[in-house]
Amino acid sequence: MTSSIPVAPPRAAAGSALQAVLLDMDGTLVDTEGFWWEVEVAVFAELGHQLLEEYREVVVGGPMARSASFLIQATGAKIALTELTVLLNTRFSEMIGRGVPLMPGARRLLAELAAHKIPTALVSASHREIIDRVLLSLGRENFALTVAGDEIERTKPHPDPYLLAAARLGAEPGRCAVVEDTLTGVTAAEAAGCRVVAVPSVAPIPPAAGRTVVGSLEEVDLGFLRGLITGMHRPVH
Q1: Angle, nearest 10°, between helix axes 160-169 and 183-191?
Q2: Has UniProt tagged this entry with the keyword Endoplasmic reticulum (predicted)?
Q3: How many CB atoms are closer than 10 A to CB 13?
Q4: Which of 24, 71, 94, 237 counts the highest number of beta carbons within 10 A?
Q5: pTM of the model
């Protein structure tokens, strides 16, 4: 299943080569990566298993099915993948029901993009139910569209979510700026041909040709994102 938003015709750049901004959610705009880990640890403790801290870097930023499969295999827990997926999503949904904290700089960046009418999409590996709850904190009005992990056949680290978002916005992937916090997300965006700025959250993101890495979302503004497209920024490691 995918979004029902029709594909728009490619837009001409107006005053800048930047055509759209595509943003990850967990760990990038909202400080929820720790929430996911807390839920995973609690659920597996109830199943009689202790999660090792080293597992965290493996599951961070990944689609639910991949992360859950890894944890089942790593622990030997006696639970079906579908059952575990539902359980984790339900627990997480309950946890964020009262709102989620935004990452430093997120509110300001979203307001700036909205003020300049920059087409913006939320592209997440999280399921639709989770995204809709988080949008209560982020503001649904800040996004022209959202892409959820359970609405597309192949999610991150495949390029499909970012290719879909660009197409729906009528933008060329190479003229889209992506903000991500995990290597999984960065891999997806780079494979789609987008220009990427990485803001690592839980795990470090290694240097790579053409990859820009910053320490905080507070370093990212509209001018910075436009510079990614025009090549004004050198990769930062």
Answers
A1: 60
A2: no
A3: 13
A4: 24
A5: 0.80
Within the chain, strands assigned E span 20-23, 120-123, 145-147, 176-180, 195-198, 212-213
Helix (H) / strand (E) containing 128: helix 128-138
Q: Output the 3-class SS for 9-57.
A: CCCCCCCCCCCEEEECCECCCECCHHHHHHHHHHHHHHCCCCCCCHHHH
15: left (phi over 0), alpha (psi -120 to 50) or beta: left
Asked whether 166 and 128 are in contact (CB, 8 A), the reply is no
pLDDT of residue 16: 53
Output the pLDDT for position 24.
97
Q: What's the confidence (pLDDT) of residue 233?
A: 58
Round to whole Å and give the CA distance between 37 and 182: 14
128, two tokens:
């639709």
CA distance 32 to 25: 9
User: Which positions ≥6 away from 33 have C-beta within 8 Å?
Assistant: 26, 27, 60, 61, 181, 201, 202
Is residue 162 helix, strand or coil?
helix
